[in-house]
Amino acid sequence: MKKTHILFASALTLMATGALAEDTFKFAMIDPFSGPAAMVTERIENVLRYSVDEVNAAGGINGQQIEILTFDNKMSAQETAIQAQKAIDAGARILQTSVSSSNTFALVDFVNKHNRRNPDDQVIVFDGASHDPAITGEKCSYYSFSWVLDADMKTAGLAHYLTERTDITKVYLLNAEGSSGQTTRQSVIEMVGEARPDIEWVGDDTHPLQKITDFTPYIAKIKASGAQAVITSDWGADLALVLKAAGEGGLEAEWFTYFSTGPGAPTAMAQSGLDGKVYSVFDGDAGVASDDLHAFEAAYRSASGFSASPFPGDVSAIRALTQAAEKAGSNEVHDLIAALEGIEFTTVYGAAATSRPEDHQIITQMAVSKFVDVPEGTLDEEGTGWGWENVAIVPADVITLPTTCEMKRP
After folding, report:
1. What is the rounded distance in angstroms from the CA atom of residue 365 to the CA atom of residue 348?
2. DSSP letter for each residue of 72-85
3. What secondary structure letter does DSSP report for 228?
């Protein structure tokens, strides 16, 4: 019901300002609005619309209201390209995808070809959350910007944190099939292995993406291995189900996760009694000490009933776009790209950030936090009474890695 209210409020704002007219700046979401990942897309859409509403209430960008368009890619790379063409035909200037790196790759490839063939009708890609370092590495594009820390950066932060956790010597790896899961797995083996050569990898499992309904057999293997910790890049329903199984199976190991701030995971952790056993290795969370973050969270939660902090890419994207449009004095694609390169802004976590010109990767700090039963009055997650307790802020310079991007500029 609260989601309906926030979307209805968005629609009223747009109609009141004439934003449904042809002179709006159209921003397309191309993500799975159906299927198992739809829950994640729904939350991303809410955060994006809330951030856009703030900008539109202040006058938009260079006098234009931002209009959000949505397209269902059905979690398919092929469908992503089809929906991208529909978005462009509808007048979208920015195309964003957030769920699944393979879909982001497909979108970047499509836009690169489209822009070469249509120099007078070019568009920009925003990567809202897909995590794979190839997006600003081997797949980097002049027309694409990533607004979240990639897997390698987060793994560098995890490795830095684990140098202080010498009590952990036996680690199990659990990741899904697909580019994001397997890229993360490899970076963990390399970076954590280099930082902590004493760690023993006691297990290494790969499972189908978003298809497992019962992770009990995996938990049994982890228990049998004697692992003190599990590192996983699972997300969405996969992560919620594996953590539920861990709690029900009495697994005592600690979990180091990349996406446990996302929908469903907090409820699963709280219901399973995993107090202090799950760590978030992420751009940030509601436990980060920041007055700006807490003010934003309080306002957003009042409107939606959910937490905004699991989806920093959407807030960063809109903040960077707004500042770039003001800097450029134009909403034209080439002017916006030039202004976005090197743009400096503040993330939802109150941290300084910039878009690195060489590869269009966001550069900012990250956080390591654990999920605990929080005192009354503290920001909790999903109405559970449980929330994030920050244990470390890893500075940007620690996780900023050399770029491998060889960008082709027009």
Report:
1. 12
2. E-TT-HHHHHHHHH
3. S
Only one residue has tokens 């987060």, namely 154
Phi, psi for residue 201 in degrees, rounded to 5: -85, 105
Q: How far apart are CA 386 and CA 374, in angstroms?
A: 5
> What tens digit of pLDDT does each residue of 83-124 get?
999 999 999 999 999 988 889 999 999 999 999 999 999 999
Amino acid at 395: P
Token pair 């809109």: residue: 318
- What the chain holds in terms of domains, given with CATH numbers, is 2-149+308-363 (3.40.50.2300), 152-282+366-399 (3.40.50.2300)
Q: How far apart are CA 407 and CA 270, in angstroms?
A: 44
Counting residues of the chain whose pLDDT is more than 70, the rounded percentage is: 95
Q: How many CB atoms lie within 10 A of CB 116?
A: 11
Helix (H) or strand (E) holding 102: helix 101-117
Q: Are 118 and 111 in contact (CB under 8 A)?
A: no
Rounded Cα distance, 39 and 262, in Å: 10
